[in-house]
Amino acid sequence: MPSELQAAGSCGAGAVPEAEGRALRPASGGVAACLPEEALIRPRWGAAGRVGALMTTRAGGVSRGEWASLNLGRSVGDAPEAVAENRRRFAASLRRQGAAGAASREPAARPVWLQQVHGNRVIELDASTPERAPVPADAAWTRVPGIACVVGAADCLPVLLAARDGRAVAAAHAGWRGLAAGVIENTVQALMEALAVRPDDLLTWLGPCIGPRRFEVGADVLQAFGHAAAGPGAGVPGEEGAALNAPQWCRHFTYRPRADGSPRWLADLQGLARERLQRLGVTEISAEDACTYEEASRLFSFRRDGRSGRMAAAIWIDG
After folding, report:
1. Which of 16, 100, 184, 214 is deepest in the core (most CB within 10 A)?
2. Residue 60 half-sphere exposure, CB side, CA atoms within 13 Å?
3. Domain-by-domain residue ranges, the chain?
C-alpha cells in the first residue's frame, strides 16, 4: 500500500508544535517541540503494531534559507543551533501514530544516526550504541525496543524493513553506489540470519527519492550495475540491439543523450531496489510515490538545489 501524509495532531504529553521560523526555544516545561503530523510521512504497510516508522519532509523546523526548515544534516552548512533544535523535534516525534491520528503517548524512541559513506556495511544497534554510530555504515538493524534506526537522505533512497512479527527492524541508505554494492542484500541477510526467517517474512518500504524522470546518470553507473562484466554489446539502453539482449536491470535505465550527443541515462532507484528485493525473495514491498527533485516545496533535493538540507527516515520497536 502507498504511504500518505497524515493529519495534524498532538505529539504527546508536554510537546507543543511550533510554527516554522520562530525563535529557537523548547516547549513549555523544557520538553522539545515535536513535529506536526502533516510534516511527516508514515508508511502504511502492514507492519506489526509495535513497529513505528516515519520519514520527515522539509517542514516543521527552524532552519532558514536553503535549509528551510527541517534540515537534519549537520554537515551541509546550516546553523548548528538550528540543526540541534530540528533534531530535538525529530527525536520527540519518534512515536507510533495513535488511534485518533495523533502520535501516541508512548515514550519516544532514541535515534541512532549513522556515519553514511555510500557503502554496504550493516551494523547492529543495541542499548549501548551511542547517538552517533561509532563506525561508518549505511544500514542498521536492531531487535532492542526503544532504539530507532535512522538514515538521512536528500535524493538517495531510504529503505525501511521489519520482520512480520515485529521482532526486529532495519533501515538502509541506498543511493546508486550502495545499491550496486549490495546494501539491500546485506541488510536482508542480516535480518534473516539474526531471526532465522525467510525473505517473505520481511516487510519493506521504499521512501521518496529522486525519480526516474530526473535522475540523470553516466556510463559509470551502468557499469556499477554490471555492464562492465557483461561486456560490450550486452544491451545497455541506447546500444544497438538493446531490446533483444538487455539484462533485466537495464529496464530501469532509459537512454536520454544530452543536446550535444553525449550519452546519458535516466535511472529508476526505486525500480532497481524493488528488483533486488524481489530477487532475494522479499514479496511485501510498499513504496512512496514521490520524487524529491520534483517536490521542491515538500522535500529536499541535493541534485535540484546543490545546497540542501537532509531528511531522515526512522524505524523502531516500541519500548
Report:
1. 184
2. 31
3. 39-211+281-317, 216-265
Give the C-alpha separation, 26 to 19, whole Å.
13
Per-residue DSSP letter, 104: P
pLDDT digits (tens, 9 = 90+) for 108-143: 999 999 999 999 999 999 999 999 999 999 999 999
Q: Is 50 within 8 Å of 95 (Cβ atoms)?
A: no
Amino acid 291: pLDDT: 98
Residue 45 identity = W
Q: Cell numbers of 210, please?
A: 529522486
Dig out the grid coordinates for 15 from the structure: 510537546
Give, as one character, the DSSP assignment of residue 109. P
- pLDDT recorded at residue 251: 87
Q: Any idea of the CA torsion for 225, 230, 231, 232, to the nearest 10 degrees?
A: -80
Choose the weakest-confidence range: 91-105, 112-126, 181-195, 296-310.
Answer: 91-105
CATH topology of domain 39-211+281-317: CNF1/YfiH-like putative cysteine hydrolases (3.60.140)
**pLDDT bucket at 248, cuts 50 / 70 / 90:** low
In the chain, alpha helices (H): 80-92, 176-181, 183-195, 219-224, 227-230, 242-245, 269-280, 302-305
Query: Exposed, middle or buried by CB within 10 Å (0-12, 13-18, 19+), for 235?
Result: middle
253 touches 272 (CB < 8 A):
no
* Average of per-residue pLDDT values in the chain: 87
The pLDDT of residue 19 is 40
pTM, to two decimals? 0.88
Cα 76 to Cα 82: distance, rounded to the nearest angstrom: 12
Strand order in the sheet with 169-174: 122-124, 139-142, 169-174, 157-163, 202-206, 284-287
Which three three-digit cell numbers place residue 142? 536492531
Q: What is the CA radius of gyration of the chain?
A: 20
Alpha-carbon distance of 305 to 65, in angstroms, equals 11
